[in-house]
Amino acid sequence: MSTFETPTLDDSERPSKLSVFLRELAFQDVAAPIFHAYMLLRAMNAPEGPHQHDARVWAITLFTWTIATVLLVRGNIMPEGRPRAFLYRVGIFAPMVLSYFEMIHLLPALQPRVLDMRLYEIDRILFGETPAIVMQAWNTRPVVEWIAFFYYSYFYLMIAMLIPALMLDKGKRLHELMAGAFIVCGGGHIIYTLVPGKGPFVAIPFDAPLDGGFWWNQVWTTVSNAGAQLDIFPSLHTAYPTYFTLHAFAYRKTMPFKFVWPIIAFFAVNMITATMFLRWHWGIDVIAGLTLATTARLVAIRVFKREGQRGSDEDPRMPVWEPFLR
Q: How far apart are CA 245 and CA 180, in angstroms?
């Protein structure tokens, strides 16, 4: 071999395509397919009933969508560039969001035995009485409307925190926010299938109905028409706002969190209160939501430490989140 010839690897020394693909996988590339595979398995084994077919359609669709995205991106089937970055964001993120609507069919399809009375017993052990009963003393129109507004604003907080970051943010903030959101969503929805319940408003009597107006009607209509009705433990109305508050506080020296983190925290406190005051959740649901959010934050920090250097000289693997707006 001449001085200028570059040594080449023979076939036995070349890494296989499978090993290269597996090396490129990031946290959510593994976590999301596992989550959707679990939901698919539960849907395929659900008892015969009116929700079984729709549950299977949703589960198959979301699982296939996620797997196709991971193969196209991490398998380098699709070339690097803005279209691939956009495809990955939509293909890995959207199925997790849409799994909320999957729950509308999957949870009743499982025909579970609800555990409300056990959750109520835990509340009485921990608090003496479930918070929803204690909060009956606040049942006046102004209070109900105030609390209902914040409960309803949960959906807008989700959009405001996740969508702009997904498309515009980068680096450590994006890594941690998305990793934590995946954990809250996947962990919460899996636990829903294991600890089904309908909440205090169904399980126990109250002295009087909530004295609400416009915002309470908005909440009632939304939950009645778009809720799974069995999704109370853990409280994701607690977990997501808490996680967003932890994330915003951690980055309080950066824009825009320098100014908005107290607002996010204020909304989170009111949303958590609303979950119990509006009789959707037991106190233990809220504790579980707080635990899930804290766990998600701690894991997200570790995920970035392990994957944050991807795409650099130290780690030549493709970045977890390839730049979308360069």
A: 12
Return the closest-CA partner of residue 216 out of 263, 160, 274, 260.
Answer: 274
**Predicted pLDDT of residue 133:** 97
* Residues 25-79 pLDDT 10s: 999 999 999 999 999 999 999 999 899 999 999 999 999 999 999 999 999 999 9
First to last CA, the chain: 43
Any idea how long the chain is?
A: 326
| Secondary structure of residue 199 in the 3-state scheme | coil
* The residue to which tokens 């995946």 are assigned: 182
| Dist CA 36 CA 58 (whole Å) | 10
* Cα distance between residue 174 and residue 164, in whole Å: 10
Q: For residue 156, give every residue at least 6 positions away whose Cβ sits within 8 Å of its Cβ, in sequence order, or none.
A: none
Euclidean distance between CA atoms 308 and 319, whole angstroms: 8
Q: Tell me which residues of the chain have a pLDDT lower than 70.
A: 1-14, 226-228, 326
pTM of the model: 0.92
For residues 270 and 49, what is the distance between their CA atoms, to the nearest angstrom? 38
Structure tokens at 90: 């939509």
Whether 264 contacts 248, CB under 8 Å: yes
Residue 296 to residue 182: CA distance in whole angstroms: 8
- Assigned token pair, 63: 């699982």
Question: Tokens 């979301």 — which residue?
Answer: 62
DSSP string, 29-42: HHHHHHHHHHHHHH
Cα–Cα distance list, 103 to 43, 49, 100, 230, 293 (Å): 10, 15, 5, 9, 20
User: What is the rounded distance in angstroms from the CA atom of residue 222 to the CA atom of residue 214?
Assistant: 12
